Amino acid sequence: MSEKFRVRVGHGLFRKLVCYTVFGDTFKEDETIGKSAPFLYFTMKKILTVLISCFLCICSIHAEVTWKLDGRTLTISGSGDMDNYSYRQSPWYPKCKDIYNIVIEQGVTSIGDLSFQDCINVTSVIIPDGVISIGNYAFLDCQYLKSVIIPNSVVSIGHSAFYNCSLTSVTIPNSVTSIGKCAFWDCHLNSVTIPNSMTSIGDDAFYGCRIKSVTIPNSVTSIGNYAFFECKYLTTIDIPNSVTSIGKGAFAECKNLTSITLPNSITSISDGTFNSCTRLKTIVIPESVTSIGKDVFLFCENIASLTCEACVPPSCDIKSFSDVNKSIAVYVPANSVDAYKNADGWKNFTNIQAIPGKYIITDGKLYTNNSQINEQDISYTRNFNNTAWQALYPA
After folding, report:
1. Which residues, including other chains, have CB under 8 Å from residue 308's CB and lie 6 or more apart?
2. How do residues 135-181 score in pLDDT, each as one tens digit?
3. N or C: which end of the chain has fewer CB within 10 A?
């Protein structure tokens, strides 16, 4: 059954009366009646039908992901992205303390912001393959959540996604390229696997975790501010040469960290990087470093030796080496000993000496700690072109 209606469209000289035919809930233009018309004629019933159909279609798009609370299990089902919610505005929030299990079914492609905030009794979460992103604050303050499997489909983990959870371990899949600020803040993580797909570790990402050791892959180029702040159980960390920047306080308050070798790819050490690492005993600063910020070694009273491989003494803040014993051995390139003894921030150390085992060439002769040696005593060499000196490393 079809029915026609007419609508005047356009303005001024360009207005025309168009005849439409409605077939069910669709319509098409049949003919142009004229360029002007004194009236607007249509069948309101059909226009209303079309408008209602469009409205219902739009509503259904936003209603594809549904939820159901059955006992203590919250199930999210359907297809597409979950909505992002404002603070304490998810539809199940009034019953958040009654939720012990969260099941996200296949078809859901993202977990929205603040989705499961304050679900303090949740102990298990099932995230299906197909979820691409975990939103900001998604599991904020899920204090009893101890484990979660992040599927290989996830690309990004949002700001504070697992803030203040009780996760003890997590494997971040190779699909993830970014971890947001505070993503695992104050979790109980004992171990973490960082994938080769990641290029950066966000600010405060593992703040206050219980990690004992961590290996950062060669894909990472930056470590954010306070990324591992107050990881009190961290004893060792391997930083690859791919890392070009380490943020402020990145390893501050890591009270069990005993030694660290910085990569030869960084040019500066940011403020407070090792502040209050009270058990730090040895530190090697690579030749690439040109500046050292303030309070970098504040309260690092147990440092027993410091090696700086830079030929030109890095510029220092007056507080760069606060609380470091000024009588410890400070090892520097042999041709740069005098430069360090006269440089601000370095001249307060009273025991600056040449790096043991390093060789220099002066006037065509080979020396080690000012003693000439035969070149054949070195089976392998590594050369550095520098205006001040040339270092050679023995086998």
Report:
1. 285, 289, 314, 330, 331, 332, 340
2. 999 999 999 999 899 999 999 999 999 999 999 888 899 999 888 99
3. N
Strand order through the sheet with 360-362:
360-362, 365-368, 371-372
Strand order across the beta sheet in which 352-354 lies: 259-261, 282-285, 305-308, 329-332, 352-354
The answer to whether residues 129 and 113 touch, using CB atoms and an 8 Å cutoff, is no
Which helix (H) or strand (E) element contains residue 340?
Answer: helix 337-341
Q: What's the pLDDT score for residue 296?
A: 96
Which conformational region is residue 186 in: left (phi greater than 0), alpha (psi within -120 to 50 degrees), or beta?
left
Rounded Cα distance, 379 and 29, in Å: 89
Please report the pLDDT score of residue 359 as a whole number: 56
CB within 8 Å of 103: residues ≥ 6 apart: 73, 74, 75, 76, 126
Burial class of residue 265 (count of CB atoms within 10 Å of its CB; 0-12, 13-18, 19+): middle
Residue-level pLDDT at 178: 84
Residues 189 and 167: their CA atoms lie apart, in Å, by 6
HSE at residue 304, side-chain half, CA atoms within 13 A, is: 4
Those residues of the chain that have pLDDT short of 70 are: 1-63, 358-395
What confidence score (pLDDT) does residue 363 get?
56
Scanning the structure block, which residue is given the tokens 């040339």?
390
Q: Cα–Cα distance between 141 and 165 in angstroms, integer?
A: 6
Whether 154 and 183 have beta carbons less than 8 Å apart is answered as no
- What is the Cα–Cα distance from 334 to 170, expressed in whole angstroms? 46
Phi then psi dihedrals of residue 259, to 5 deg: -155, 155
